[in-house]
Amino acid sequence: MSRRQREMREGAVTDWATAPPPALVDYVLNRHHAFMRQQLPRMSALLTEAAQQGGNAEAFLRLRRLFGAFRVEIEHHLLTEELGLFPLIRGTDAAGQPLSAAEVAAAPEHVRHLAEEHLRIGPELGELRRLTAESIVPRPAGKSLGDFRDALQAVESDLSAHAAFEDNVLFPRVLARQGRGASAGGAR
After folding, report:
1. Which of the 8 DSSP states describes residue 187?
2. Longest dimension (CA), the chain
3. Please, what are the domains in the chain?
4. Global confidence as pTM
5. What pLDDT digit, counting tens, does each position of 20-41 carry?
């Protein structure tokens, strides 16, 4: 791997307009997907720990249900990208076999669906923030809940950057390559 490819993969390159689409995919996988795969299980464990430290059991139950649904949705979104769109961008399936022209032509529909999912993330995060407010889930939940709040803020920031990168860089490139223009039809 060349130095430029390594820099793109790690996100050190800011000229994404000239990066090949597979490098954009590598960046999303290595930066954003890896971060979510680290944080989401950690956050689940923090919620369990916080609930065991005491506090409003009903509020914790609501918080755990909402976070559980949020986690499933995010993990599904990551898999949809990894098993649906990203192979289309690379032009090969998971086994490295070339995709047919008809399969690659499905990319715009994947882009539209994923861009719509990006728009639904904000309200869910807002409700998670509301439920983690001290007035809703009071002490003695303590350090674990504070760590969960910090992780939630980091996840929210990363999801925002992830969606912006895809909506403004990756998706327009995919659509342009497909000859469909540069709008993801719902992308920000």
Report:
1. -
2. 58
3. 20-177 (1.20.140)
4. 0.82
5. 888 999 999 999 999 999 999 9
